[in-house]
Amino acid sequence: MTRMRVGTTQTRLVVLRGNSASGKSSVAATIRERFGRGLALVGQDNLRRVVLRERDRPGAANIGLIDTVARYSLDAGYHVVVEGILHADHYGAMLTRLRADHRGPTHGYYLDVPFQETLSRHATKPQAHEYGERELRGWYRQFDLLPGGTETVIGADSALADTVDRIMRDTRLAQLSSRE
Question: What is this structure's pTM?
Answer without folding.
Answer: 0.92
